[in-house]
Specification:
The complex is a heterodimer of chains A (511) and B (120). Chain A has 511 residues and is an all-alpha fold. Helix content of chain A is 74%, strand content 2%. The termini of chain B are far apart. The chains are: A mainly alpha (511), B mainly alpha (120).
């Protein structure tokens, strides 16, 4: 069952090239099949049964292990919702068959990555994800898209080269690449120089793909220039796959200090850039960088509650960032304006559904109770005792509100043109689970944790954060700040990645 | 001469590739340097797990022999294929850019594209 999820998609990818007439039906059918399979996995998980499958009959030492756990199942749900949203959004557009093949490949490799338990298997799937998202970004063949995706490919491929070096060192010293076996074999090796080098190589390689600020400088250009549904999938899903791998690595290697520092860096820098960016899609892309900070922080601290919190926030962020990208794409398309001031002037031309979508997404990302962002943020701040971490979380929340306050004039109620039913249903698919997020969270928490987490204090706190953020936005001078833009070029990007690698190595040596 | 082995050569190649990626402005040279970086990772993976005087892991008799570990070679095979795919796709995209801007210089392409973006 677990191997069928990715494999069926690879099969459908081939089929969608051969059978051009039923191509959209095939995509829908494959999603229904996925839903059925994931439902089956959930049923077995609810009975306390987890599946672990070693392909080829080689044993865990050498074979490729696929296994499911709570993390991968939660992410499976996110994949289903985002895929549903993106497909609904694209339903009435005419696209080449090759595009559908890429979508199948993307979903298939995402499922494969969620169940992968082997360092080299992760490498292969990561490269597959890079290639498919590289082709998807440049699907419309505009020059700026091609350049953005070429930069992405070069940097990601460099990162995977470094990752492979790490894999080589690990295999030489331990004789296995299975994460479960590694966890037990590395206990005696803590602090040896080769382990420091190998783990910093692995983390650097994955960090380039998972949207951490100093490593993923390709991200704003690539995500802002892709077409809306693709941006939603990349930002909501593909970036999260890097985070999933970091989570898996964090269970084996001592990643706590590096991840905490990186989360602070990516969170704060992402927000500073987002505040001073007025291009709507680019701002959303910078916010992907900043919100990754929350996820990495939760993984870095690493307690049970923190990991649940960052899991929740990953799903919530996938939903509202997907929704924001879809609605923003529709708004930009309808008005022909990319900048927020231009959009505000022409706001009556934006379809009403898109504006409601933007509103719901903004409410979600600001963390207004009781929607998706609130649950994740509260769980994260509840999970840690240290006042420093809590201050950082508060700073991140306030910064998010400041940068999204720019959008508030868009939401004045005015009639706008109606949008096609397929797009409206896409907004509903992503927006509805977000609104119903709190009851869904209940399924994953025990009643005590539930009562501890969602108190009046937290509700008031998050409302206060929104108020303070809005006030700061009003006081803040509206002059553009001359932030360095050179780092987003190719050559400087590589240099910054190298600097980041040494930073990670240093942090490993200290931690 | 003991210090010259696959691993040190791999590290050297990695450094050369990295320098090429950063310093050379020609996109095709950049892609070649990327190939060098990825190739050095492959060399490292193979030569770290090499065994002097090893025999191929094909069992003829039950007597123990210095068999070579076949797993790294199997791994490397898929890595090579992936790198080939990356290189081929990247070259196609470089071709698009060259057709449009008539140059392989990355900084000039970057400049042209940012100028076009301002005009849009």
């Amino acid at each position: 069952m677990i191997a069928l999820l990715p494999l069926s998609h690879f099969l459908f990818a081939a089929a969608s090239l051969a059978w051009k007439r039923g191509i959209r039906g095939l995509l829908l059918f494959s999603l229904l099949l996925d839903a059925a399979l994931i439902g089956g996995l959930f049923m077995r998980f609810a009975h306390g049964e987890t599946i672990s499958l070693v392909l080829g009959g080689w044993g865990r030492e050498m074979g490729v292990e696929l296994a499911d756990d709570r993390y991968s199942l939660v992410f499976c749900l996110l994949v289903l919702l985002l895929a549903g949203g993106a497909i609904a959004y694209l339903w009435q557009e005419r696209l080449r068959p090759y595009f559908y093949m890429l979508l199948h490949l993307l979903f298939g490799s995402v499922f494969a990555l969620l169940f992968a338990r082997d360092l080299f298997n992760i490498y292969v799937i990561m490269e597959l994800l890079t290639l498919t998202s590289f082709l998807l970004v440049a699907y419309e063949r505009r020059a700026y898209q091609i350049w953005a995706s070429l930069k992405y490919l070069l940097l990601a491929s460099l990162g995977m080269g470094m990752y492979l070096f790490g894999v080589a060192i690990i295999y030489y010293h331990t004789g296995t690449l299975n994460l479960g076996l590694l966890a037990s074999r590395l206990v005696a090796e803590q602090g040896t120089p080769w382990l420091l080098l190998a783990s910093s190589l692995l983390v650097t390689g994955i960090a380039i793909k998972s949207g951490i600020f100093i490593f993923s400088l390709w991200l704003p250009a690539a995500h802002a220039s892709a077409s809306p549904a693709i941006s939603a999938l990349l930002s909501g899903l593909v970036i999260k796959m890097g985070v999933v791998v970091l989570l898996r690595l964090a269970l084996v290697f001592p990643l706590s200090l590096p991840l905490e520092v990186l989360s602070v860096v990516t969170g704060l820098l992402g927000i500073v850039y987002a505040i001073y960016t007025y291009d709507l899609k680019k701002m959303l892309a910078f916010h992907t960088l900043s919100q990754i900070g929350y996820l990495i922080l939760g993984i870095g601290i690493g307690s049970e509650l923190e990991i649940i919190g960052s899991l929740e926030y990953a799903v919530g962020h996938g939903l509202f960032k997907g929704l924001l990208f879809l609605a923003a794409g529709a708004a930009v398309q309808a008005t022909g304006q990319k900048d927020i001031p231009g959009l505000i002037i022409k706001r009556t031309q934006i379809p009403l559904a898109a504006r409601v979508g933007l509103l719901v997404g903004t409410i979600g990302i600001m963390g207004i109770p009781p929607f998706a962002g609130f649950c994740g943020k509260t769980l994260l701040s509840n999970g840690t005792e240290s006042p420093m971490m809590q201050t950082i979380l508060l700073l991140l929340s306030v910064g998010t509100v400041i940068s999204f306050a720019k959008l508030i004039p868009l939401f004045r109620f005015e009639r706008g043109p109606s949008s096609p039913w397929s797009r409206t249903s896409a907004y509903v698919i992503l927006g509805l689970p977000m609104v119903l997020f709190l009851p869904l969270t209940r399924l994953f928490l025990s009643i005590d944790m539930w009562k501890e987490t969602f108190t009046t204090f937290h509700v008031l706190e998050s409302l206060l954060v929104v108020g303070v953020g809005y006030l700061i936005y009003r006081i803040l001078p509206k002059r553009p700040l001359p932030l360095p833009q050179r780092i987003f070029r190719l050559e400087e990007g590589i240099l910054v990645i190298l600097a980041g690698f040494f930073l990670v190595f240093l942090l490993f040596a200290l931690g | 001469m003991a210090s010259i082995n696959g691993v040190t050569i791999a590290i050297l190649l990695f450094g050369i590739g990295l320098l090429g990626l950063i310093l050379r402005r020609d996109l095709v040279v950049k892609l070649l340097s990327l190939g060098l970086v990825n190739g050095s990772a492959i060399l490292c993976l193979v030569s770290l797990n090499a065994r002097r005087n090893g025999v191929p892991p094909i069992v003829h008799s039950l007597a123990p022999a210095p068999y070579v570990d076949p797993l790294p070679q199997a791994l490397v095979l898929s890595a090579i294929v992936i790198n080939f795919a990356v290189l081929a796709l990247a070259l196609v995209f470089v071709m698009f850019l060259v057709e449009r801007y008539h140059t392989t210089d990355s900084q000039r392409i970057e400049h042209e594209i940012s100028r076009e973006e301002e005009e849009r």
